[in-house]
Request: fold
Amino acid sequence: MGKREIVKWIFIGIFAGLLILAALGGWVFWKNSPKRVVEKFVKAVQKEKWEDAWECLTLPDSPFLTSEALGGALEKGPMAGMRSFQVKKTGKMEFTVSYEGSEGQEEEIAFQIEEDGRDGIWKGWTIVSPRFWAEDIQIEAYSPLKVQVDGILLTEEEEASREENTVTYRIPYLFLGTHQVETLGEDEGLKDAVKETVINQDGQMVIAEAGDVTDETLEDLKERTRQIWQECLDGMLESETPEFIIQSEEERWSSQIYNPEGTLLRAFDSMKSDYGGFLWLRVKELKLLDLDVQAEEVGYQEGILWVRVQAEGKVYRRWRKAVPGDHPWDEKKLEEEEARSFTVIYAKEEGEWRVMDFDGA
Reply:
């Protein structure tokens, strides 16, 4: 091969290399163009490829802003289930995404792009608007309970304030959308509870709800309810106020926490009149028979964990009733069993379930 031939092939090689480089540069430019970043994000959301969507965003540093958390937040969001979309440039770095929603409705979202600031030959782009996260989310919980958000256990690092029975956590950033807030209550005799919470604004307050009571706790409350009910019945016969009412009145549980307009003493007086007490009706015996107890509601108020218990039972009643027109000493013995319902609201403090209120016996 002659010298001229060699030079010729060198020029051909250089020209081919330049063509390849230009083509590669055009492909990379198209691949990394601002519009392409928006398309990549929307397509990733459409196909639920959360890692790909997450890579299109520049996010604050937070353990709660992971790709998994982004998926959990967006999979029930307004873009979920979109059927088709179109990206249109509306400004230098501004784009509008028009899409058909899961129910056929037409929707639009505006996007803003900027350089991602990474070093390299080719520019990179990132989505800066809309902002897909909220700031300063607070979660309030009954302090003995542990709280998890999206599977991450909250610790003292997130703790913002603590009172006697209430703790408030502060999470700097959470994605907008649906999150799982879970309370772990085994140590308090409660089942774990999961609550779906929608984050849609900055500075949002979330209440971490307590779970249902465990079977073991319910058995304890059932036995305590049986004791309370029978103490009330005995108090009616003896015309004495049960000791647990006196103690609760001294602590002012019902008047301060749950029932500001009434007291246990007032409730007990109402029960006495319901059971009788007429001059011609002399009750000789009141006894609780069958008892079934269910926990209807669990929550906390003013930092106090409480549970509402509904009891269904039978009360045996025996009395002596004077027959009208007969002599006072001519009496007829009567007895009956009567179905009754009984509601108790317990509050837990220092590991002990105390009576807040009761009604309906």
Summary: The longest helix spans residues 3-31. The chain has eight helices and 16 strands. The helical segments are 3-31, 34-46, 50-55, 67-74, 215-238, 243-251, 253-258, 264-275. Residues 342 and 361 are 5 Å apart (CA to CA).
